[in-house]
Amino acid sequence: HSSTNAELEWATDQGGKILGVNSVTYDNTQRTVNSTTWFDSGMEITYTPTASNSTALISLFAAARATTSQYLYFQLRQADGILGGGAQGYVSPIIGNVSNWANVSATWHVSPTWTAGTQTSFQIYVKKHTSSQAAAYFGWGTPSGTNQGTYKDGLIIQEVAA
Predict the structure, then answer these.
(1) How confident is the model over 83-93, as pLDDT tens digits?
(2) H or E element: which one contains 125?
(3) SS3 call for 62
(4) Within 13 Å, how many C-alpha atoms sit on residue 35's CB side?
């Protein structure tokens, strides 16, 4: 048995520390997505940053269902300004018949315009890919009066030191 003694070297903090976290969940909130134009999904998270120059990791987790080859696109917005997502920010195709649900998720690492100590909010906008397909559904709900269980959709925000 041998051991090695190594001297510790201390480095300057390079950032990346999580400064704070907030989350919000939604029960039984199903949104019908009939539009190929962006609309506010009603999913919103608020946060009060501790530093003005920090960044944010914002994660969406939800369920969706759609007809064959339908896509859902998501945008992250702050006060109607687009922070992430868009035409290239789509979530994988939700493929199957109307009774199939799929888990969808997205995470954006953004540099919001915010001020330490002042609450700000972020919204999720959604649209479907094509008008030639039937409606898509975003958010676990109770279609046809059938309880789909206790799954919750939600958002998580983590403030990250610059």
Answers:
(1) 866 554 444 44
(2) strand 120-128
(3) strand
(4) 10
Note the pLDDT tens digit of each residue in 31-69.
778 888 888 888 999 999 999 999 999 998 888 777 666
Dihedral over Cα of 35, 129, 77, 138: its sign: positive
Q: What is the CA radius of gyration of the chain?
A: 20
55 neighbors 17 (Cβ within 8 angstroms): no
Does pTM top 0.90 for this prediction? Answer: no
Instruction: Tell how far CA 65 is from the center of its chain.
Output: 17
DSSP 34: -
- Dist CA 76 CA 6 (whole Å): 47
pLDDT for the residue 58: 93
The secondary structure of 127-147 as a DSSP string is EES-TTS--EEES---GGG--
> Which pairs count as long-range contacts for 8-17, CB under 8 Å and 24+ apart, including other chains?
15/160, 15/161, 15/162, 16/160, 16/161, 17/160, 17/161
SS (H, E, C) 69-115: CEEEEEEEEECCEEEEEEEEEEEEEECCCCCCCEEEEEEEEECCCCC
